[in-house]
Amino acid sequence: MRFLTVVLQHTCRNMLFTWKSQIMTLFTVSLSVLIFSFFYLIYSNALHVSQELGDDLRLIVYLDENPAPAMQEQYQMKILKFDQVERIEFISSQQAFKRFEQQLGDNSDVLTGVPADFLPPSIEVYPVRSLDSLSRIKRFSDYLQTLPGVIKVQYGKEWIERFFSFIQLMRVVIILSGSLLIMTTTFMVAHTIRLTLLSRQQELELLRLVGATNNYIRMPFLLEGALQGFLGACGGIAALLLLFNWIKLQFAGPTTLTLLPFTFFPWPIILSIIGISTLLCAAGSFSTTRRILHL
Amino acid sequence: MSQETAPPDIMIDLVKVTKVYPPEVQAISDISLTVAKGEIVFLTGMSGAGKTTLLRLISRIEKPTKGMVEVAGIDVAKLPQGNIHQLRRKIGMAYQDFKLLPDRTVADNIAIAMEVVYRPRSFIEKRTRALLGQLDLVKKYASPAAELSRGEQQRVAIARAVANFPEIVLADEPTGNLDAETTEKVMNLFHQLNRQGTTLLIATHDQSLYQQTSSRVIELRFGRIRSPLSDPPEDTREETAASSLYPSPEA
User: What is the pTM of this model?
Assistant: First the structure.
C-alpha cells in the first residue's frame, strides 16, 4: 500500500515537472487514437453494411432452359464446391413468372396472354455474407459465366465493386493509422519519459545511492507511460464520440445515414482501444527506462 | 589467567583491495582493513590519497579492480545489480559534494532516504524534525536546498545519511564547511549513533575530530595505508602491515 502511494506520488511529481511535454504527448496520443478509431469506426460500420446487404448480394444465373434434375445436381455440385456459397435456389420459368406476377400486384393483368415460360429459368446463388465473399464475387461471377447453359450472370456489379474498393481502401487506411498510433504512442511516450529521466537524473542517482529498489525507481515511469496512453486514448475516443454525434446530428433526416446502420463502437472495442494504447505507451516507457537507467 | 572473548562482529572487511581508474590511475593499492561493528574509524590523508575511493568501494559505487570488499557479510563486488539496494540500505553516506536535490526542500532531501524503505509519513516527519533540531536547522525545514549555505547543505547531507538508522555511516569530509560549534554538534550526533551500535567511517582532514578520541585513525598516502595513528580495538582481526605502530593519542 505504501509502495503504491509512493509510486503515485512520484508519478504525479514527474508529470507536473514536465507538464508541457506531458500535454504535447497526451495531445499526440489522443490525435492518433482519434485518427485510428475514426477510420476503424467507418470500417466496422462498412462491415455492418455488408452484412445487411442481404438480397443485394444475390447472384442470378440465367439459364437457356429449365435444367433436368441430373443437370441441376451438376450445377449444385459445381457451385457449392465454393465455400463462400451459403445456398443456391433453382427458379424455373414458371416460378419466375409467378414472382413477377406478384410483384406487379394489381397491374398483373398486363401479363394476360403472355406465356408462363417467357422468363428464362435461373439459379439464385446466395454467397456467405462476409467481406471475403464480397471480394471474390467478381471472380465467382466470371466462373459462373463459364458453366454450360448459362446465358448471363447478374448482380449489383458496379455498386459491389465500388463498395469493395472502398473497403480495401479502408483496410489500407486502418493499417496506416494503426501504424501511426503505434509509432506516436511508443515514440512520443518514450521521448517524454526520456525527458523526464534526463531532467531527474540527479534524483535518480540519489535514489540508487540511498537504497531504492529498481522497481521503486522504474514503476513511476511505467505508470506515467501507462497513464499517458490511458488518458490519451480516453481523450481520442471522447473526441470521436463528439464527432460521431455531430455527424449524426448534421446528417439526420431522410438521407443515407438513416437508412444505413451507423453505430458507435460497442464497449468491448472501446476498452480494447484504450487497453492497447495503454499497453503500447507502457511498453514505450519500459524500453526507455531500461535503456537510460540500465535497469 | 587470560579470558577468551568471542571476536567482535566484523562490519567492514577489505582484503588486498586495489582500485585502478582507466587508463592507469591507481587510486588504491593493496589495502586490507577490518572495521568492527560499532567502531569509529577516522580515515585521514592528503587530497587524492584514496579516502573517497575507499568509501565509494565500501558503498559499491565503485567495484574493486582487485581484492575483496565485504560489508556486513556481503561480498559487495559479487552483489548483483538488482540487489545493491540491500547493501545501500545498511549504509548511510554523507558525500563530500552533498548530493542534495537543489529544487527540493531540506525536509524532502532528508526524507528521501526514509521514503525508499517505505517508512510511514509520521515517522519521516518526526525523524526529520528531530535531526534538524540536533543540527540547528529547524528553521530551514521548508527551505529549498539551493538556498542554503554550504555549511547548512553539509548538515542536511549528514542528516540524510543518518536518518534511517543505518548500520554503517560513511562520512566524507563531514565537517569541511562547518565552524567549531557546529562540528561539535555533528560529532555529537555521530557519537549518539555510535552508542546505538552504528559503525562509523569518517574521512577527514580535520585533526580536531580525532585528536581527542581513542578511536582508530588510519592514514592513507598515495592509495596505501601508511599507518594507523592508534591501536585497533581489541579482538578485531589483524590489519594491514604495521597497523599497530602508533599509540593512541590518549595513551
Answer: 0.70
